[in-house]
Amino acid sequence: MSSTVVYTGLGKLTLDNSQMAAIKFLVILLLPIFGGIFHTACYLLVAAWCLLGVRRSLEGLTLLWLLTYLNPGIYSLSSLEGFLRWLPLFASAFTVMRVGFFTRDYNIPRAVVWLIVYTIGIMVMAFISSRLPLVSLFKVLSFCIGVMTILMGFQIESDNNKYWEAWFTTLLQTLLLVSLPLIVLEWGYTRNGTGFQGILNHPQAFGPVIALLLSWFFANRVSKDNQSLWFWFIMAVGSISIIASESRAALLVFGGGVIISGFVSVFKNKKIIESINIKVAAVLVPIVGAIMIAGIIYSGSIIDATSEFVFKRNSITVEQAFEKSRGFLITQSMGNFYKNPILGIGFGVPSLPSEVYITRDPLFGLPIGAPIEKGFLYSAILEETGLVGGLLFLTFMASFFVPILSKNIVFPSLVIFIGVLLFNIAEAALLSIGGNGLIMWLLLGYARISNG
């Protein structure tokens, strides 16, 4: 593992990649505690950091996601946050594209070409069918710039897989360990009083993101001979945090991601069996067996407890729980799609006109934010961009996934791919580069290079 040498008044200090990553995350987590002006300063520092190179740009985007999702019950947030959060994005785009487009031996990924085609198509459609053309234009351009920056950046960084493995492992560990004390304090539940959100601003942000990172961490360690007590500690803390978040999406991402990816990996690449540590398997098999036996013995109590969790402590049916949680959002989306099946209602446009709330920049009055809630990515795509946009999006995603899936599958990478797809069953976040879509694309970009 490479290291960084820091010169202090006491002499030379050598820090490895994980320690340097932890320092960067902790700076972002500590400074905003002292007031909104420090939160503002963090955005400016991250934007400046993004100008220092491709690696720093990708780090800066991760730090940007963290800054955007800080718990307002703990931190004093900047009043200019809606404007400031775009500075690191555009700074990183400038840095990465300057290197990518002006380096002779750099080959632009095919997925980037199809991303540009998708973006041009959606921009044309915005003028034809969007209820809010300027909002659609801003959102699709920011999505294109963000995803293009990430895909090109990770391709440039394709020889530094170990560095990014340490980076995302440290992100998971920092989120868990800093959030852990809050699990017994009211600050960890400021959003709704019951779901654990840790240092982030919502249980539905904390739970699924932890689940995505934890499932990758689990797959990464199980496929290598490097399990330790620390590994089991992180798994325990992560599992408790996911359950405490009361996020059903988190359970879907963690459980479904690992199980589906495991089956696909085995059938696609039989060598995956050889990479699984026999010692870990010897421990896991008895544990799983014991859980199954206990499940049979105490099935009645488990069903009651599970129902209480899954249906949010209400005695309702599965259909009622689904309708209350996400069903009505899907119904709204599909209703709009049936009315506008070809071109949709506009990229990033709310399902109901009454839900429109546009944030504009203080200088030019341009739209820089219009939050929406769509419960299911795949119906949201049809609603917003119709069959034409859906076909363009499918082509773009195929250009990203197919070349990877056609190779020998790397189990940890596949966990990320499947986890992201499952995440968007519960929350349409993949197209929101200003939200959880940012951390998803960062993980997808890393998974793409780690899969070879």
How many structural domains does the protein architecture include?
A: 2
Strand order of the largest sheet: 1-2
Order of helices and strands: EEHHHHHHHHHHHHHHHEEHHH
Number of helix segments? 18
- Compute the separation of the termini in Å: 19 Å
What structural category characterises the helix and strand content? Answer: mainly alpha
- Measured by DSSP, the beta-strand proportion falls in under 5%
- The geometry reads as globular
Q: What is the averaged pLDDT score?
A: 80
The tally of beta strands, per DSSP, is: 4
What helical percentage do the residues reach? 55-70%
Radius of gyration: 22 Å
Question: Which runs of at least 5 residues are low in confidence (pLDDT < 50)?
Answer: 5-11, 272-285, 287-304, 317-323
- Mind describing the biggest β-sheet? 2 strands, antiparallel
Describe the structure.
The protein has 452 residues and is mostly helical. The chain has two domains: 108-272 and 314-450, no CATH class; 277-311. The protein has 18 helices and four strands. It has a two-stranded antiparallel ribbon. The protein has a two-stranded antiparallel sheet with strand order 3-4. A hairpin with a 6-residue loop joins strand 3 and strand 4 (367-369). Helix 11 (248-268) runs antiparallel to helix 17 (411-426). It is globular and about 55 Å long. The model is unreliable at 5-11, 272-285, 287-304 and 317-323 (pLDDT under 50).
Would you summarize the structure shown here?
By secondary structure, the protein is mainly α. The protein has helices at residues 17-30, 36-50, 54-68, 81-84, 86-101, 110-129, 133-156, 161-179, 203-222, 229-244, 248-268, 271-275, 278-297, 299-310, 318-339, 377-405, 411-426, 436-450, and strands at 3-8, 11-16, 359-360, 367-369.
